[in-house]
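Posting this for the archive.
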Amino acid sequence: MVLVTDRAVVVLEYGRFGGVKPTRVLARLPQGTPIGPMSGTWARIELAGERLWVHKKWHEDAAAFVPTRLG
């Protein structure tokens, strides 16, 4: 999971088979770290050296992230 705050982009790890609580913080990246580009049903992106898969359901939300809108 990727969380975008007014201070940072935080990459969290979840258990592979469900679960609603993150198991650990993989990385804290500076605000303004680009997310994407994304295409296809499952977009493959890389953040902090971690390969992540983003379902097309969430592509629009990630595309709406513009660093200058925060803060």
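Helices lie at 59-64. The first strand starts at residue 2 and ends at 4.
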